[in-house]
Each structure stands twice: as structure tokens, then as C-alpha cells.
Amino acid sequence: MSHSFGPIVQQGYVVPDLDVALSHWVARGIGPFFVLPDHHLETEYYGTPAKIRIKAAFAASGTQQIELIEPYADSGPTVYQDYLDSHPEGGLQHVAVWCEDVPAQIERMDDADWVLAQRYKGTHAYYDHIRSPGVMIQFMPTLDRYLSLFKTAEREADNWDGATDPVRNLDW
Asked: Which of 68, 102, 124, 161 has the smallest set of CB atoms within 10 Å of its CB?
């Protein structure tokens, strides 16, 4: 993917229980995590408008961001719930690359062997390959708030002692 879309900057794991997943990663020295405990998003899921609700957490490991996502049970249809339905234990659901212009990238992808699975209004887009489905690719816009989150997570990880405040709320 890096030859087609640029370097992978994020690994996105969908998990059945965010607290358990946070404990797993923190025990392995990854952190601190910044948590959005109740995030509401307007999306299109395979072309159909949907409103979803997730918990999410972000941390840095070097230049890679680790994202953990738990969909709420009362959320609308999502690629996250699809993943949990087929992988109840959770796991790597997507990798992400930066994208300067997500709408233009979506237009380019219409000519490729990819299917647009989900997208957020004006921002992220998740694609799966038609002939080789599996871990999705996410096009992530280079908006200031996302770039700032990446930089904050990297800085905090570099200065973290491995124990103090491993889980922190993210105020978006």
C-alpha cells in the first residue's frame, strides 16, 4: 500500500472492550492513550447515510499511531461492527495513510478495484479491495486537529515514564 498511497501512519484495531484493550497495550509499554469515550459521527456505510457512536483511543509508538475502536451496541451499521461480527476477539481492522484531498482520492478510487465501505462527512474514507478483502485502508485527511493529535501522542509517548496517567481523556 505504501507504494500506491504513501506510508502507513496508523494501525486501527477494532476491539470488543476498550478498557481491556487499553490494559493490553499499556502492559506492553504503549501509551499514554488519549480516549474519546463517546464519539458520534455521521457516515456513509456502503453508500447509505448512518449515524454511529464509538469509543476510541489513540497512542503513539514511534511514528506509528495505534488506534483502538469499540463500537457502541446501539450504533448504526459500521465497518467496525462488521469486523467484530467476523472477529469477535477483535484485531487489526485498518491501516491509515495521510491524504491531502480525500474527495479527490475517492474519485480516483472509483476507477480501481476497491470498494468504498465507509466514509465520514468530508473526512476519512475506508476502502477494501474487491479481489483481496481483509484489512482496510483508511484515507485520513491532513487536517490540523488530526495532525495535532499525532504530534501530541508522539510527544507524550516520548516523555512518558510507562506508568503515570496511562489513559487520558481527549477533549475534542
From this structure: 161
pLDDT at residue 111 above 90? no
Give 107: exposed, middle or buried? Use CB within 10 Å, 0-12, 13-18, 19+: exposed
Q: Give the residue-averaged pLDDT of 77-83.
A: 95
Q: Are 63 and 70 in contact (CB under 8 A)?
A: no
* Neighbouring C-beta atoms of residue 168, cutoff 10 Å: 15
* CATH number corresponding to 10-158: 3.10.180.10
* pTM given for the model: 0.94
pLDDT category at 136 given cuts 50, 70, 90 is: very high
Phi-psi bin for 31: left (phi > 0), alpha (psi -120 to 50), beta? left
Average pLDDT over residues 153-172: 93
| Distance between CA atoms of residues 164 and 96, nearest Å | 28
The set of cell numbers assigned to 164 is 503515570
